[in-house]
């Protein structure tokens, strides 16, 4: 009987599937965009004077300060920080921040591509993109600000976690911590405007959406965590949900990197959930050693880092290579025509990429799979999903097994 899918899981997945089909058939994305995009675009244009007012204080120090601050709260930073959180013994915090990050990434990027609102126009606005990550971010749409959204949610949840660990925290420390988080979020918002990456409406959108998501998550996080570690059919449900979420993603007005980011983080959550569900009682329960305690001193934690980071990077490389080999063969065996926009050289071609970009603007992803006449599908999406799923699985399963063997 354990293999029977619970009613709520079947109903939830069917609801998502129905929404995908219905929203595609009735062009929900285009209808919402036609209402919101003109208004947001006007706000961006009228807000240019605010951006220029802030940029009047241009200085080399502020250029470096806000560029570094943006890197500290970027998705690549969180992606590198989360494995260390798992290996430090704070498994629950790491799980929750990973799932919350994925939820923020999906929600924020969906809204970006639904509204398809522009970023501040340059010139007259000066845009400072100091890193490759920032240059890719600049290719996305503006509303809402992902940096603001992610910072509010993750710092807010971290604050909640710290307060929940110790019941008798002095009120002055609580006020100080809350004030620091507010100041940090404010600096992130001002920095995004100073760097020319966002207008005021984008920051306000990220602020409102972030507070809404955080409030929602604080009500459901215990239920989500209990399902991940103790639920039934967790792996099969999450695989189905991950697959559907790729097709539930809206089609932007013009192609952006947002869908690629969503695919990567969907793979991360899939790997984390499946790995934790299988190894919770071995490596991720609440009684595991935590860093800065006698059971896990700083030297042992440094050893974990030195061994763990190269291992997960190796798994990421191997997962990508394996997916690049298996998926085209599997697609060929099933009679599914595929192309590649960059990963598989034999399937890459300028005409194919051009067709891909044209298709991305024609309708919803699932609608294109079942209802369009396109000749091929981009295999890179599946490769990216498996690559990051493999990386995340190694963080919570393979690497902790190595730690156990090495007594770390």
UniProtKB/TrEMBL annotation:
A Pfam family it matches: PAP2
Subcellular location: Endoplasmic reticulum membrane
One cellular component term from this protein's GO annotations in UniProt: endoplasmic reticulum membrane
Domain Phosphatidic acid phosphatase type 2/haloperoxidase: 94-218
Bilayer topology: Multi-pass membrane protein
A single MF term (Gene Ontology): sphingosine-1-phosphate phosphatase activity
Family listed: Belongs to the type 2 lipid phosphate phosphatase family.
SMART domains: acidPPc
Name this polypeptide is given: Phosphatidic acid phosphatase type 2/haloperoxidase domain-containing protein
KW Lipid metabolism (keyword) present: no
Domain of life of the native organism: Eukaryota
Keywords, sorted A to Z: Endoplasmic reticulum, Hydrolase, Membrane, Transmembrane, Transmembrane helix
Coarse class of the protein's main subcellular location: endoplasmic reticulum
Chain segments annotated as transmembrane: 6-27, 64-87, 175-194, 200-220, 227-249
Cross-referenced InterPro entries: PAP2/HPO, PAP2/HPO_sf
């Amino acid at each position: 009987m354990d293999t029977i899918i619970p009613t709520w899981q079947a109903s939830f997945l069917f609801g998502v599937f129905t929404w995908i089909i219905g929203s595609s058939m009735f062009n929900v994305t285009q209808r919402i965009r036609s209402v919101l995009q003109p208004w947001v675009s006007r706000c961006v244009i009228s807000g240019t004077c605010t951006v220029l007012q802030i940029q009047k204080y241009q200085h080399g120090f502020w250029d470096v300060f806000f560029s570094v601050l943006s890197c500290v709260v970027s998705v690549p930073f969180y992606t590198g920080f989360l494995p260390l959180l798992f290996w430090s013994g704070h498994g629950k915090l790491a799980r929750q921040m990973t799932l919350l990050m994925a939820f923020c990434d999906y929600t924020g990027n969906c809204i970006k591509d639904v509204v398809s609102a522009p970023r501040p126009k340059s010139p007259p606005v000066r845009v400072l993109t100091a890193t490759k990550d920032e240059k890719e971010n600049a290719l996305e749409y503006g509303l809402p600000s992902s940096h603001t959204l992610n910072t509010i949610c993750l710092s807010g949840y971290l604050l909640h976690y710290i307060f929940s660990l110790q019941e008798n925290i002095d009120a002055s420390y609580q006020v100080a911590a809350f004030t620091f988080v507010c100041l940090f979020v404010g600096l992130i918002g001002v920095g995004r405007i100073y760097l020319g990456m966002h207008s005021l409406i984008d920051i306000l959108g990220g602020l409102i959406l972030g507070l809404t998501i955080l409030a929602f998550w604080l009500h459901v996080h215990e239920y989500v965590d209990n399902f991940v570690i103790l639920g039934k059919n967790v792996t099969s449900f999450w695989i189905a949900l991950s697959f559907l979420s790729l097709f539930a993603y809206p089609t932007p007005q013009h192609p952006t990197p947002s869908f690629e980011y969503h695919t990567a983080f969907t793979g991360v959550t899939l790997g984390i959930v499946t790995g934790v569900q299988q190894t919770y009682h071995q490596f991720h329960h609440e009684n595991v050693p935590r860093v800065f305690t006698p059971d896990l001193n700083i030297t042992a934690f440094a050893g974990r880092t030195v061994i763990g980071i190269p291992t997960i990077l190796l798994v990421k490389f191997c997962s990508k290579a394996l997916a690049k080999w298996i998926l085209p063969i599997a697609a060929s065996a099933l009679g599914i025509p595929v192309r590649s926009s960059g990963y598989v050289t034999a399937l890459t071609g300028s005409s194919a990429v051009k067709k891909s970009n044209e298709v991305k603007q024609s309708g919803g992803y699932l609608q294109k799979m079942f209802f369009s006449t396109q000749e091929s599908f981009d295999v890179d999406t599946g490769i990216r999903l498996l690559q990051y799923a493999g990386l995340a699985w190694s963080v919570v399963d393979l690497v902790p097994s190595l730690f156990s063997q090495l007594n770390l």
